[in-house]
Amino acid sequence: MHSFAHLPALDIDAVRQQFPALATSWALFDNAGGSVPPRSVIERITRYMSTSQVQTGASYPLSQAATAQVAQGHRAAETLVGAAAGEVVLGPSSTMLLRLLADGLGARLQPGDEVVVTDLDHEANIGAWLRLQRLGVVVRTWKLDPETASLNPADLAQLLSSRTKLVAVTHCANVVGELIELDPIVRMVHAAGARICIDGVAYAPHRRVDVKALDADFYVLSLYKVYGPHLGLLYGKREALLEVAGQNHHFIDESNLPYKLEPGNVTHELAAGLPGILDYFEWVERHHFGEAAATWADRLDRVFALFEAHENVLMAPLLDFFANSGGQFRLLGPTRASGRVPTLAFTAEGTRPQQVAHALEAREVAIRHGDFYARRAIEAFGLREQGGVARVSMVHYNHPDEVARLVDGLAEFAQRK
Ligand SMILES: Cc1ncc(COP(=O)(O)O)c(C=O)c1O
Predict the structure, then answer these.
(1) 163 belongs to a structural domain
(2) Hey, is 267 helix, strand or coil?
(3) Can you give the pLDDT at residue 2?
């Protein structure tokens, strides 16, 4: 985390007022599934649809205005992750973008080339690569270390060879919320002459994504979990994207980035809403720091430092509760705030995860249960049979009072069962 001499506390009441959907009596703790959008995003989408929704790309002024707003959406997405112009592909979801990427890279691979996937990842960053087996590509699995229930870079070293072309790995485990230290992994992959494809879906709502500092080749995230509309974002280094076979019409040039990977174009009104995410971050910065920092990188550092500090405040009572539950609840993943985001997966002794979720619903607390499409991780943890885990996923707009309600609900559940 960036250190600031004077980091103010997040003004949670003012923050919540930016999100119309938070005017509900429910505590929303399924944010790793999807976050709600701030007013600024909704307003931009509404404005586009009310004033500009004609087909883009024509010469008449209204069409030019529509084209410009969609282009601004691409610029905002680039700013969000620190990419250069043309390096961000927008699409309907991370799953679809990873499919597109894998198919585009697959067209350039030879039988016997190798790809490494993990069994910690969401299926989106596994299944897309497994499909390449039909082309003779060999897929190897970097398995969880049974001692630590985490990924051990030494195990990756055993899997890399001159045949490895790509490693697909997560930046943060979507079930257990563990942050993965990527720097040594990226270095190892690059030293082997391979590319890295990082799933940042579970990371991006909580920390600033800086694709250049990471030296990522490819990076995906779901904008609808980062306070935006339902779109996915795929970053690729320019030279890496140029290597990928275009997935658009045959006459769209291979150098036409990002359009060669946006067949059918992006959903215009949603792309037009994307600058609303930055509008919101700008408001957060101004509200807490007064003046704006000189660069977007610094501004995003400030905003995410505020978010992280608040998230740690939210997490503390829940971590304490699990630690002192006398074995009634078992938290998966890191037991301290450092090394994790506030996505907390747990099991309750002698019950199934859905019973916990249903019990909390009686208190208007919304959590979720299941495998969260990280089915291999749930299998590796030995939790498939019992229906996976219960998962509480918080973001910066959650209120400490909501966490208190959740903890009370869990305590009552433990007493009653
Ligand atoms: C870590 C992770 N990767 C990928 C995905 C798939 O994202 P999308 O719904 O945008 O396809 C999810 C969705 O929950 C996720 O949590």
Answers:
(1) no
(2) coil
(3) 61
| Residue 172 DSSP SS3 | strand
Whether residue 365 lies inside any domain: the answer is yes
- Pocket, ligand 1, Cβ cutoff 6 A: 93-95, 122, 124, 170, 174, 199, 201-202, 222, 232
| Sheet of strand 329-331: strand arrangement | 329-331, 343-348, 389-393, 368-370
Is residue 21, in this structure, part of any structural domain at all? yes
Side-chain-side CA neighbours of 410 within 13 Å: the count stands at: 28
Residue 95 Cα, ligand 1 centroid: separation in angstroms?
A: 6
- Nearest CA residue ID for atom 7, ligand 1: 94
pLDDT band, very low/low/confident/very high, at 147 (cuts 50, 70, 90): confident
Instruction: Output b/e per residue, 69-106; b: 16+ Cβ within 10 A.
Output: bbebbbebbbbbbbbeebbbbbbebbbebbbbbbbbbb
Domain count, the chain: 1
Q: Which of 151, 197, 218, 222 to mutate to test the pocket of ligand 1 (most atoms within 8 A of CB)?
A: 222
Instruction: In whole angstroms, give the CA distance from residue 330 to residue 190.
Output: 37
Q: pLDDT tens, 375-405?
A: 999 999 999 999 999 999 999 999 999 999 9
Q: Which of 99, 122, 218, 234 to mutate to test the pocket of ligand 1 (most atoms within 8 A of CB)?
A: 122
Q: What is the pLDDT of residue 185?
A: 98
Which ranges of 192-342 would DSSP assign to H, the alpha helix?
211-214, 238-243, 268-273, 275-289, 296-323
Cα-to-centroid distance, 342 and ligand 1 (Å): 17
Residue 147: how many other CB atoms lie within 10 Å: 7
Question: Which of 94, 179, 221, 395 has most ligand 1 atoms within 8 Å of its beta carbon, as the pocket-test mutant?
Answer: 94
> What local confidence, expressed as pLDDT, does residue 149 receive?
86
Residue 323 maps to a domain: yes
Ligand 1 midpoint to CA 274 (Å): 18
Q: What separation in Å is there between the alpha carbon of 159 and the centre of ligand 1?
A: 25
Instruction: Convert the pLDDT of each residue in 155-170 to its tens digit.
Output: 999 999 999 999 999 9
Domain that holds residue 372: 12-37+295-416
- Alpha carbon distance 333, 175 (integer Å): 9
Tens digit of each residue's pLDDT (9 = 90 or more) over 249-285: 999 999 999 999 999 999 999 999 999 999 999 999 9
CATH number at residue 335: 3.90.1150.10
Is residue 30 over pLDDT 60?
Answer: yes
